[in-house]
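Incident review: delayed structure delivery

Summary: a single-chain prediction request sat in the queue longer than the usual turnaround. Root cause was a stuck worker, restarted by the on-call engineer. No data loss occurred. The affected request and its eventual output are reproduced below so the record is complete for anyone auditing the incident later.

Affected input:
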Amino acid sequence: MSLRTGTRGETVPPVPSAHAAEDTADRAPGVDIAALLERGRTMTAPVLRAAVDRLAPPMDTVASYHFGWIDAQGRPADGDGGKAVRPALALLSAEAAGAPAEVGVPGAVAVELVHNFSLLHDDLMDGDEQRRHRDTVWKVHGPAQAILVGDALFALAGEVLLELGTVEAGRAARRLTVATRKLIDGQAQDISYEHRERVTVEECLEMEGNKTGALLACAVSIGAVLGGADDRVADRLEAYGHHLGLAFQAIDDLLGIWGDPEATGKQTWSDLRQRKKSLPVVAALAAEGPAAARLGELLAADAKSSDVENFSEEEFAARAALIEEAGGREWTVQEARRQHAVAIEALDSVDMPGHIRDQLAALADFVVVRKR
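Output delivered after worker restart:
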């Protein structure tokens, strides 16, 4: 098959940088990415904590541990709560519609609640024992609590929006519900692909568009909807978020194989250990040549083995080398560039203040230049 490569977005470097925020600042003068992300955290944190406080014990404590507010013993902690890209996008979304950033806060909180619902369940389904350099909730508090708290966060997301009692809140809740359904579709596709020998590039992109793109698309439209934007504006912002999500996931797929565990907080070769059909793997298998053929043979044998987790580092490294030799790594880099370019193009069709567009463009750069 013919694999697409990017022709634009040349500001995106060929590999994730070890200095993401600094590099982005260099390429987007006047835009302070760290400040944008911190604003998202600062403005949403009180509302997010208040929502979590509504949960019955011990779910409130378990959720607080997941968010990094307390440690496993219940003591206050200053944990890494993630990159906060989605809250930053939701606040900028409101400003893109001409509303104050504060209007987007309920949307930002709702999206964060859904995102963390998915993380709690994903960690359990994938058997991941580490997230953000700490034991995952199911590892500390057990699978039952991970499931219950995830369900509770999903319910809270709708509550946070609908209690506003406005027409705009209803529209926002509908978009969030659709995005959540697509997210779940994507997770189901991801799991099913692990048990298949072959997955097409198109299937992989559809899965990643659902699993990652849908919620980012919602994040960057939900604030605008709460701010009174019509569906045309919200849809164009969603298009930016969807393609940004695909770029984000492409980089995530690269990090899932070649990322530094010290930066990602996950095991070496984490996606290979889980037999994930991520973009580098799928693109490599779709290529022609001896490396692709040998990779296909190894992965077909792996699918029938119950001992993949016990493979040596050398065995995983050999598979990663074949993926790179077959072109899967470079193709995924080019796909991240292409999706980044399409996301930026979508911004051009929205009438918004110039400085808001610049900030959205800078966040798009940041998403594809990162090490975790």
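Verification: The chain is about 70% helix and 0% strand.
Action items: add queue-age alerting; document worker restart procedure.
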